[in-house]
Amino acid sequence: MPVVIRTLRQTVCQVLQSTACRCRKAALPGLFPGPSPWQLPADANFHSASFSETDQPRVLITGGLGQLGVGLANFLRKRFGKDNVILSDIRKPSDHIFRSGPFIYSDILDYKNLRETVVNHRITWLLHYSALLSAVGEANVSLARAVNITGLHNILDVATEHNLRLFVPSTIGAFGPTSPRDPTPDLCTQRPRTIYGVSKVHAELMGEYYHYRYGLDFRCLRYPGIISADSQPGGGTTDYAVQIFHDAVKNGKFECNLKANTRLPMMYIDDCIRATLEVMEAPAESLSMRTYNVNAMSFSPEELAQEVLKHVPEFQITYNVDSVRQAIADSWPMNFDDSNARKDWRWKHDFDLPELVTTMLNFHGFDTRVAQAN
Ligand SMILES: NC(=O)c1ccc[n+]([C@@H]2O[C@H](COP(=O)([O-])OP(=O)(O)OC[C@H]3O[C@@H](n4cnc5c(N)ncnc54)[C@H](O)[C@@H]3O)[C@@H](O)[C@H]2O)c1
């Protein structure tokens, strides 16, 4: 081997070894963890008490007043105790949410505020839900860039600094038109064309980088479109699959902003929340990767309408296509391959399309048994 290359190699090895020595956390074999940019020197070990696996986690949910956060908090509170799960957002909570458990103001763009929250509440798990979703993000790219990218950097740093277990949801939107779409595997080309998708690929890669570089316990699921009964969607491309139930029950008709045959992966919120807890509780050694696809079903607006019709015989669907949302949907997976999640931590969905439709209509007060009998 030429001397120059050998010398260079030795220097690189020395640098990497000295970096590894300074790291407080156990490293993964063969990787090179070092201190996070926010970690304090070795004499500042008082900074964060480590989380014992026997303790209940102390959970912070950012962006918790969106479509998914409140349901997640309720679920985790039943498991870990009401006071161990703190919901946060920059919006004002309703009286009901405020009374149902701890809520605090937390802006993910304010690092000092985030750090104070983590320290004062002795947080050990951080579930990072703040984001601008696909359609809203395209309407305000600079805010989406700030919240979804700069905000994520704050989250990664505070989680690394305080040895937190960090969950960041990703999305089918992290894929693009050059990704295989039917089905889309975990590892393939990811060239999304929305700021939302770009920011989520960034989150996946940065989280994995922090995991390998600093030992951060980063866990990420790529959710499909999530359908919930008791919370409003936040401006995503799959929102139609929530709105259709409200309108079917209220008016017996629905105007869809995607084409009839636009097939996308979807999941009922109970499955989404359970998947999140399961991956958070999975033993580290069972995780062969840190970012997993999860899926439950895949359908188009016309297939969903057919299923609704079985319960609401007078139901009518019409189409008035929104070109921005349609272009986004046409670049997204039609079907999601989640076989790695099913193999590694035994992911299994409960809700398929018929079950989803019955549950959603029942929630909105529609008696599906009567309708079926008619
Ligand atoms: N809902 C879905 O179908 C879906 C699908 C895939 C992935 N996800 C992901 O799940 C997460 C939650 O989704 P959601 O549907 O609940 O989103 P949402 O848009 O309904 O809620 C996002 C929340 O983030 C908050 N937020 C915005 N800026 C903030 C800031 N600076 N600091 C703190 N909070 C801020 C908003 O106030 C809002 O309550 C997001 O990361 C999203 O990308 C959602």
Task: Describe this structure as you would to a colleague.
Catalyzes the NAD(+)-dependent oxidation of L-threonine to 2-amino-3-ketobutyrate, mediating L-threonine catabolism. It catalyses: L-threonine + NAD(+) = (2S)-2-amino-3-oxobutanoate + NADH + H(+). Helix 2 (69-80) crosses helix 9 (269-281), helix 6 (141-161) runs parallel beside helix 7 and helix 8 packs parallel to helix 10. The strands form 3 sheets. This protein has a 7-stranded parallel beta sheet, with helices on both faces. A 3-stranded mixed beta sheet has the order 7-9-11. A two-stranded parallel sheet has the order 8-12. By secondary structure, the chain is of the alpha/beta class. It has 14 helices and 12 strands. The protein has helices at residues 3-21, 69-80, 95-100, 111-120, 134-139, 141-161, 195-214, 240-251, 269-281, 301-309, 323-330, 339-344, 353-363, 368-373; strands at residues 59-62, 85-89, 103-105, 125-128, 165-171, 217-223, 225-227, 253-256, 264-268, 291-293, 297-299, 316-319. Strand 2, helix 3 (95-100) and strand 3 form a beta-alpha-beta unit.
Supply the CATH architecture of the domain at 36-228 and 266-297 and 334-350.
3-Layer(aba) Sandwich
Number of distinct beta strands:
12
Distance between the termini: 83 Å
Number of helices: 14
What's the pLDDT, averaged over the residues? 88
Give helix and strand order, one letter per element, not per position: HEHEHEHEHHEHEEHEEHEEHEHHHH
GO biological process, one term: L-threonine catabolic process
Function: Catalyzes the NAD(+)-dependent oxidation of L-threonine to 2-amino-3-ketobutyrate, mediating L-threonine catabolism.
EC number: 1.1.1.103
Enzyme class: oxidoreductase
